[in-house]
Write a structure and sequence with these properties.
The complex is a heterodimer. Chain A is of the alpha/beta class. Chain A is built from 10 helices and 10 strands. The mean pLDDT of chain A is 90. Chain B has a two-stranded antiparallel ribbon with strand order 1-2. Classes of the chains: A alpha/beta, B mainly alpha. Chains A and B meet through helix 2, helix 3 and helix 6 of A and helix 10 and helix 11 of B.
């Protein structure tokens, strides 16, 4: 089951440039929450702070409080490796491991966590691929084909399966469909809709229609600040802030 | 075409002729007046690519073809010359030459086995020492090193490649050999002497010293290639592994080394090629005694060394011929080792070579 996320006073920097200004945001469990905003507004940085991927970039750092369920992400003694294991992430560009078979791609995270039992591995890989709606397309070539031999949309679903295999509590998606064609995009969106039964999903998107289609809650970021955060219908129909209205009606961005 | 120039008189690219666009025949009469007055860029492009400019293209093609063919020609010539000059000993000893153990210029009896053995053992010993070291250096430079130190270490590693091999040889004689004799060899004999690889008299000079010198000489080759292929691995592969909850070492193993492995094997093959053919430094430290000994402390001899050492004093025709045949043997060994290495690459990739994403 998914868990909620509570963000309090989150600041992030790249070198001397501050890219997030004290963000407060509460993401409910088992919901899909969208993060929208123009390019460079900090929405990717925000989700990368949630699983401490932000700090893997040289000179990048973050401060503040992020609680995922019971876990204090930036607390003393918090281990980024453990954080990332419990918070899965899917990136903008599909990044399967090209030297591994489809099976090994999905099993990669499990093997990192010490799963060795072949039967158990196989069950978990099958379950993850089914969750990611890819099983039927790849079940005959699991061991024969490399992860890179799939189409772009399939690769992205493979990456989702890979992230789901380690049974995270939260799934972060950083523009997961922006490199895909419309048909693949709709498959991914359908999948996101299914996933919220088991996971809390936070999705960054450029595409406002996509946010409107998949998310129950939407946050609008502008220049490193969270301008407005509310039910998706409200953001898109009667936003409280003028800047949100300008953005969602297409007056800028 | 009416305005094409005679190809024989114009090997150089042809300057565009200052003509109105309407007269370019390929454009036809209908389109020309429409585009001509509007776009001067288009006009310029069309003028500078008349179809007669294919002639320099043809010339370029032939020059390139010639360079490619010349490689074949050089290889064929070398092999032919080696076979031709070693005809005498080929005839005398036949296939026995390659596994014979004798090297006796006085009685004109020759066998290449000790030299083949020396070359292979010293080279593989060098690989054994150099590969982990080089990969370690490359991993440190690409994944862990602070930005400022990175350039310095890279520069130092590449500097190792610029040192002449005779200097390595001198260093081997005056620094490495005493060090091995007084400290390393007694230690190895005490701890690993039972294996039989580290026993017998400790001279310092010998197979072990040759392997170590060669290892130092091929580290820059392997390390710089490994560094290149590792930094060519896209950042998103590293992020993919990290996001699964991997430690830094797991990220390097799964996200970087795994993706770069074909390139790394390529670097190792290049290093091995250098080790097999290296002459000067090895000749100075290997001890130059043609015998096959199990112990790495014992002196040995390599194919390149025996040619360099004995060619000037080879008086008899048979002696000279045998030395040239050693050269032929070196050529064949290098060929076989390279073929095996390629087979290795092919087998670990399952036939689908994919250098990096």
């Amino acid at each position: 089951m998914g868990v909620g996320i509570e963000v309090r006073g989150l600041n992030a920097w790249y070198g001397k440039n501050q890219s997030l200004n004290s963000i407060d945001m509460t993401v409910p469990a088992n919901h899909v929450t969208a993060v929208i905003g123009p390019s460079g507004c900090g929405k990717s940085t925000f989700v990368r702070c949630l699983n401490r991927m932000h700090e893997t970039i040289p000179e990048a750092r973050a401060e503040g409080s992020v609680k995922v369920g019971e876990m204090d992400v930036y607390g003393d003694g918090s281990d980024p490796v453990e954080v990332r294991r419990r918070i899965g992430m899917v990136f903008q560009k599909p990044n399967p491991f090209p030297t591994m078979s489809i099976f090994d791609n999905v099993a990669a995270g499990l093997k990192l966590n010490g799963f060795r039992n072949r039967k158990q591995l196989h069950e978990l890989v099958e379950r993850s691929l089914k969750l990611a709606a890819l099983w039927d397309e790849v079940k005959d070539t699991l061991h024969k084909k490399s992860g890179a031999s799939l189409s772009g949309g399939q690769q992205q679903r493979l990456c989702i399966a890979r992230a789901l295999a380690v049974e995270p509590e939260v799934l972060l998606m950083d523009e997961p469909a922006s490199a895909l064609d419309p048909i693949s995009t709709s498959k991914i969106e359908e999948l996101i809709f299914q996933l919220k039964q088991h996971y809390t999903v936070v999705i960054v998107t450029h595409n406002m229609q996509q946010a409107a289609r998949v998310a129950e809650l939407t946050g609008f970021f502008l220049m490193g600040s969270l301008i407005e955060y509310d039910k998706t219908e409200k953001i898109f129909t009667t936003p409280a802030d003028k800047r949100t209205e300008d953005y969602v009606t297409g007056r800028f961005g | 075409m009416s305005d094409s120039v005679d190809p024989m008189n114009t090997p150089e690219p042809i300057e565009p002729l200052p003509k109105p666009v309407t007269s370019i025949p390929s454009l036809g009469k209908v389109e020309a007046p429409r585009s001509a007055p509007k776009s001067t860029v288009l006009q310029k492009i069309r003028q500078s690519h008349p179809s007669s400019s294919r002639i320099p293209d043809e010339i370029f093609r032939w020059i390139i073809l010639l360079s490619a063919v010349s490689v074949f020609a050089i290889v064929v010539l070398v092999v032919w010359k080696l076979v031709d000059k070693s005809r005498l000993s080929l005839h005398q000893f036949g296939i026995h030459f390659f596994y014979g153990h004798d090297w006796d210029p006085v009685n004109d009896s020759y066998g290449a086995m000790p030299f083949i053995y020396g070359t292979l053992v010293s080279s593989f010993l060098a690989l054994l020492l150099a590969v982990p070291l080089s990969v370690g250096v490359a991993v440190y430079i690409t994944e862990m090193c602070p930005q400022g130190l990175r350039a310095i270490i890279s520069f130092l590693v590449e500097l190792l490649a610029a040192i002449p091999s005779v200097i390595y040889g001198l260093w081997g004689i005056f620094v490495l050999a005493p060090l091995l004799r007084d400290y390393v060899q007694p230690f190895l004999a005490k701890t690993l002497g039972w294996t039989g690889f580290f026993s017998g008299p400790m001279y310092g000079l010998g197979m072990l010293a040759a392997g170590i010198i060669l290892a130092i000489m091929i580290v820059p080759v392997i390390a710089s290639i490994t560094r290149e292929v590792m930094s060519a691995v896209p950042q998103n592969q590293r992020e993919a592994v990290l996001a699964l909850g991997a430690t830094r070492w797991e990220m390097i193993r799964m996200g970087v080394l795994r993706n770069a492995r074909i390139g790394i094997v390529g670097g190792v093959i290049l290093g091995l090629g250098r080790a097999l053919g290296e002459t000067m430094a090895v000749t100075m430290v290997i001890g130059n005694r043609p015998e096959v000994a199990k112990s790495l402390f014992a002196p040995g001899y390599t194919m390149a060394s025996v040619i360099a050492n004995e060619f000037s004093e080879a008086t008899g025709d048979m002696y000279l011929s045998a030395l040239v045949e050693i050269g032929l043997a070196l050529f064949i060994v290098t060929l076989i080792v390279n073929a095996l290495a390629r087979l290795l690459v092919w087998s670990i990739t399952g036939g689908t070579a994919r250098p990096s994403v």
